[in-house]
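so my prof wants the structure for this chain in the tokens format not the other one, which i didnt know existed until like an hour ago. anyway here's the sequence
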Amino acid sequence: MPGYDPRKLTTSEEDYLKALYLLTEWEETPVGTGALADQLGLSPASATAMVQKLAAKNLVDHIPRGAISLRATGRREALRMVRRHRILETFLRDELGYGWDEVHDEAEQLEHTVTDRFIDALHARLGHPAVDPHGDAIPSAAGVLAARDAQRLDRFDGPRAVICRVSDEDPDFLRRAKDLGLVPGAVIEIPHGLDYISASLIWVREL
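here's what i got, hopefully its the right format
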């Protein structure tokens, strides 16, 4: 069976693998080509063609018109890119003064231009942070993630909670959340008074 060489993965292939992982990181729902296309801002036809290429390289499993899932090799490469992205986001915030609403797009560009050695050195220089600016766990160099114990705020049933993660998908929401003090580590009282959309972008755990 044909294999793959991570040094020969294209930028697009890396983006697809990372996107597929991120779509299932917090929501365990089947992912089809439509959802993958939406995540990347591409056409379903383009997503289908790329998924077929990734399947040919044994990086994903795909049932025609069905769900796509990462194989072990694909998950390893996805986590390698996630690690790069989250360490770069942390560097941009902590060392260069970027806002947490600005780091995502910059890291998207940089993650394809650096080496794993550089990322490991950067992680060490930053003091081996466990999470990125939004509270997302940073995978280890071996692709291991710390166990997560959090749930979406709109599904939380309790009097008080501590914020663990804020989704980075909407920069406008990140700016508003910061103004309201809704950042990782902050304690929030229930009922919180937030609208459904806002509450669905925040993950918490019980105090």
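also thought this was worth mentioning. The CA atoms of residues 166 and 202 lie 5 Å apart.
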